[in-house]
Amino acid sequence: MKIFPHRLLFYLWVLTLALFNQSGLSSTLTTPLGPDVAADTPVQKMQQMLDQGIKLAGSSPGREKTVYAQALKLRQALAQNDFVQANAMLQQSLSHSGFHAGQFQPFSALLRLAAKPGGKNLATHLDAWVKADPHNAMPYLLLSVYLNQKGWRIRGTRFANDVLPQHMQEFLRELRLAMADAKQALRLAPDNPYANYLPLWIASGIRMSPAMQQDFAGARKRFPQYYALYSVMLSRLAPKWDGSVAAMLSFVHRYAASKPDNSELRLLYLQLFANLLDDAEIRCTRHNGTTSESCVAQHTQNLIHAKLLQRVDGVLQIYPEVRDKLSYSRILGRILNDISKLDGSVAQHYADQFIQRAAAAMGTNTQLSAENTSQNNFVMDRLTGDIWYRQSHYRNAEKLYRRAIADLGHTDFPSPAQMEAERAKLFQRLANLYYQRKDYQNSAIYQIAAGYMRGGSGLSGYSPTFCGALYHLGLYKQSIGACRAQVQAGAGDEAIYWLALAHEALHQISRAQARYRQLAGSESSYRAYSAIQLSVIHAEHHQFQKMLNTLNAYPWLYHQRTDSSRFDIAAAYNNRCYAELHLGHLHAALQDCQASLRYGNLPDAYAKEQEILQRLHMQGAAVQAHDNSATEIWSATHWGFWVAAILFSLLTEAISLAVSFGLVKWTILRSRLYREQGSPHQSVFTQIRRWYVIYFIVINGLGILRAMLTIGILSGSVPRLMAFAVELGPDAVGDLIIIFVLPLALSQILLQQNLVRTFWGALRLFLLGAFSYFVVAVVLIFSSAWAMHVTGLPAVIAPEGIWSELIAPLIVVLPGWL
User: Fold this and answer.
1) How far is the C-alpha of 131 from the C-alpha of 715, rounded, in Å?
2) Is residue 538 over pLDDT 70?
3) Where does residue 398 rank: exposed (0-12), middle (13-18), buried (19+ CB within 10 A)?
4) What one-character DSSP code corresponds to residue 475?
5) Cα–Cα separations (whole angstroms), residue 35 to 38, 163, 445, 477
């Protein structure tokens, strides 16, 4: 690799500065830093921020022994196939681990960090270790954790129904492989607590099964105080994972009710409460993503009884009695954070109430105006800061985060490394806060400080937000370097997103496109933006056919059920309209521009729509000639579909009306009034039949008219304003006949013949006929559709996909009131 002289000097300077800081810098906390001196070049600007970030971090005692630092060394040993060193590090971590904060720490954290999917060869090295030492549980544990995390990265976090089928299949395949390795590790090391927990963690991504229950029973028997075992099982019993409220209540009562008041397992009551709140929000979330607050309140009232609230209140008060106060605080903080992150006022009400109750028991004052906070619990201050942050009150959040940093000084941590790791997390929160305030320089400085504190060099920051801060500062090359390092260390989609943006900013288009395709082909929340941006790049290079192909390659882009927002859908249709316009596909472009305007008010889409309409209008004879040639295609395909739809509608209505008339006639013949008056009333059936015929002619005439107007609009021969006539005219007339004319006519006939005594009797007879007509029509429509699907007729008559256009004629021609 070629190293330029100025870059070599830069790396030597960073190394010298790091060594100096380890030996002599104080650990004081300063306020946000401004630029001390003007930086003329990106390299100088980056050097200045590194200087300030490492100075802000201070001496950072214990940073080299943090779990993150150990994970970096473990990944390095694996990259060199030094399996002896890797095994020694894991064995040492295992011997120094214990049950803390619900987990088996630090062993579990080390495995998760070291086995993050990142780097092209990590899986290869893990497979090689398994082959080299097949009787050692450690490589199986690492490989299992790696495969599980890889599977979840493929699947994403959306609901299962919204995951693309191919990604769900890949996810399940990775989980099956992960489970096989986890079971092998458990067979080799049954006394390893984490080996007992791992199969449960993996199975939480699949349906509850007897095997999972057996794994839980065996693990609980060996380690009855392992909180994580109970936590993962309780979460899996939630209704959203095919469980039930009753199952969760029974589980918590069975395993927590008999425990002493100061047992951590009593916190299962609080987790149960969080699960019930989450279930209420899921039940009350509409298809458009909004949540009904009144519905949540009602469900919460039904699910959460007074006895559970009493148990939860007791859990919040046990802090003075627990032996490991730090462990209790961390589990409590994790659950309260889950509650506070739920949307809606109901969850926020309980989160605020619980945090205040727990803080009072801990002797913590979380008010902004509090003066004496020398004994505050850092978890409570951090939680309160998080709430202010989510509400965008960044000044208040900053005050609480700085107070939480001060709290670390009087917290009893098992080691300096654990304290430094917590300090790094709080600095990361401050970095995110400055990022939201668009103070990108201070955000980058605090990222450097946080990354250095947890055991890194600081050059790659703490999280992908560092890449974003550098990007906004115009340090594109530095952003690429940081993002690449983070991706190699296991960072996810956010780092890839900033990597793509930085490459694009440097006009490295092929590299940017590769990253955008990686995101667009995944379950990432950045995939909609990435797919649209790919089309924009093609447009900028006048590659309109490639632009159109790209937009058609991601069909989920046009469905709001996925993560595409209405704006994303509007932008996608707008871009496709643009491509089709430049390719000369005016009618297709017009449809896409109009679709874009249905999802968003993009001025660009409106302008293109007007341009297309003007071009279609001004083409004159050329357009007419184009339409004449298009008519031939319509004769073979579109016209055939519309004629078939009209004939199918006529046949359906004829059969449905015949059945309806027969039922009405049979009902009248069996009525007491008809039997009493006898055969002179046979003429009543002729009059009723006449109205059936009138209805058949008028309704089908309106349907044919509506079809002709729709064809005219689709072919461009009818003005767009006629769409209002298509939608409102025939439907309005049909509804008028159905709602007013037919019931009045039938009642007039029956009253004159003394076959009913009141209008309501005639109305009941009308509803009977209408209902039978509706049922028969629906049965005929769906049975015909099913028969065509079974026989494969659509693929035969429309192999090029034109079959989808038959749906439009059916919808237009069939009566609107169906």
Assistant:
1) 66
2) yes
3) buried
4) -
5) 7, 46, 11, 20
- Whether 66 contacts 455, CB under 8 Å: yes
Highest mean pLDDT among 664-678, 691-705, 778-792: 691-705
113-122, 197-206, 355-364, 558-567: least confidently modelled range: 558-567
Question: Dihedral, CA atoms, 696, 699, 700, 703, nearest 10 degrees?
Answer: -170
Write the pLDDT tens digit of every residue in 569-616. 999 999 999 999 999 999 899 999 999 998 888 888 888 888 888 888
Q: Hey, is 285 helix, strand or coil?
A: strand
Sign, CA dihedral 67-73-75-77, equals: negative
Q: Which two tokens stand for residue 804?
A: 């989808």
CB-count burial class (<10 Å; 0-12, 13-18, 19+) for 680: exposed
pTM: 0.72
- pLDDT in the model for residue 639: 55
CA pair distance 140, 182, nearest whole angstrom: 7
Tell me the two tokens of residue 328.
């209790």
HEC sequence for 60-111: CCCHHHCHHHHHHHHHHHHHCCCHHHHHHHHHHHHHCCEEECCEEECHHHHH
Buried b (16+ CB within 10 A) or exposed e, 262-297: ebbbbbbbbbbbbbbbbbbbebbbeeeeebeeebbb
Q: Are 441 and 52 in contact (CB under 8 A)?
A: no
C-alpha to C-alpha distance for 26 and 48, rounded to whole angstroms: 19
Query: Which CA distances in Å does 194 have to 65, 141, 189?
Result: 21, 9, 10
User: What CA–CA distance (Å, rounded) separates 533 from 480?
Assistant: 19
What 8-state DSSP symbol labels residue 486?
Answer: H
pLDDT for the residue 391: 92
Going from the C-alpha of 48 to that of each of 44, 333, 441, 450, the distances in angstroms are 6, 36, 10, 16
pLDDT band (50, 70, 90) for residue 737 = low
Amino acid at 719: P
Structure tokens at 93: 């971590």
How many CA atoms lie less than 13 Å away from 461 in the CB half-sphere?
Answer: 33
CB 734 within 8 A of CB 747: no
Residue burial 585-610, b: 16+ Cβ < 10 Å; e: rest: bbbbbbbbbbbbbebbebeebeebbe
Instruction: Report the interhelical angle of 527-540 vs 544-552 (nearest 10°).
Output: 170
